[in-house]
Q: What sequence folds into this?
């Protein structure tokens, strides 16, 4: 038996399947670059190692 939280997460995962590939995100560096871009647009100050 699956509880409600697990069920919700499984539904979310299914809904997002393939979205990364469609957005051109292929690896960890693409994710890092996307986060940097979003933070820059928002004006957030951050330090990335």
A:
């Amino acid at each position: 038996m699956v509880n409600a939280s697990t069920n919700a997460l499984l539904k979310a995962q299914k809904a997002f399947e393939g979205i990364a590939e469609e957005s051109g995100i292929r690896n960890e560096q693409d994710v890092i670059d996307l986060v940097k871009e979003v933070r820059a647009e928002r004006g957030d100050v951050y330090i990335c190692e």
Observations:
- The radius of gyration is 15 Å.
- Helices lie at 4-16, 19-22, 28-42.
